[in-house]
């Protein structure tokens, strides 16, 4: 349970405060409601590029890191298909330094050709190192466009092509910033040794003067129903072959999310799960196998990823995975359901142990409807029945809804 207070500034910035006096620190988390899905198809990778640019100096502060470090703080950020999230922790007595830094880069970045060139080079190198020159690095560059034909989830956060980043102009990035990085498109959460009154005073001082912007209505294309199995076969210089099977499923907003998430847990969470027991331990088809939901805000994917033993071929790998998938449709034992529900509850409890995670959780659940939802997650999972999961399995784990990436080792 995370107690909190919530208020909104006149410029639209939503602020959530969780007071925790067991720590001398405060965590600040700013979630911007913009991710890779908001990019144009010919200008991808911009949200991630902005994650880097936001550390390149703001309009009144040349260097973000140095003053924060002198105040005893540290920071980082991440971007995904739906959001861009910045966070820092700082000793409570120096909290105003965090407000000064975060408000200035929300006000405006120090847009310069030099800063853009530096961060553009960093992102291009990251693209090469992590996605092109690393074994299995291009899996999601291949699997996403196989599964999504219309929706922008068809490209990864790093972008579709390096050229989109290489050709990004100063005008492009200024336009992207003005479009999405505004107080009325952000959620600020504060967790730690800070009382509500102080938080309100600091928010009014540092964030209230930042003007709201016109945020365009998001009109993303809806991915049509997949009506036939899709298969992509690749051969790469990698140690072992892998298979990826992806089925379209619900969005994070849907009530079905909890049953779908538990379905993936029954399939693969832990070494007592069905896929591991039947395909790794009892029969040596794979060295490892996992199932997970991508859990995105629009309709997402349930993915099974298997690492094949050399004695297993791709046809056999697909066949034995589908046999386990079909077994779930036939029934789920009470002990299986209770096990994954207990694990889900434990994960929720562990995610609330640090002030950084508390701040992130509050901001994220506010994004998807109401910060109070972070206190209802265990209840949501525990309300799922075996019949709910069987119904989801029968609905989504069908041949025509499946995209398969056969990632074959050339050895």
Strand order of the largest sheet: 1-2-6-3-5-4
Number of helices: 15
Oligomer: single chain
Overall pLDDT level: 95
Percent in helix:
40-55%
- Please give the alpha-carbon distance between the first and last residues: 52 Å
Number of strands: 11
- Decide which structural class fits the backbone: alpha+beta
> What portion of the residues fall into strands of 2 or more residues?
15-25%
Poorly predicted segments: none
Largest sheet: 6 strands, mixed
Radius of gyration: 23 Å
How are helices and strands ordered from N to C? EEEHHEEHHHHHEHEEHHEEHHHHHE
Overall, the morphology is globular
Describe this structure in words.
The structure is a single chain. By secondary structure, this protein is α+β, with helices and mostly antiparallel strands. Helices cover 41% and strands 19% of the residues. The chain has 15 helices and 11 strands. Strands 1-2-6-3-5-4 form a 6-stranded mixed beta sheet, with helices on both faces. A 5-stranded mixed beta sheet has the order 7-11-8-10-9, with helices on both faces. Strand 1 and strand 2 form a beta hairpin. The longest helix is centred in the N-terminal third of the chain and has 20 residues, at 113-132. It is globular and about 60 Å long. The model has no long low-confidence stretch (mean pLDDT 95).
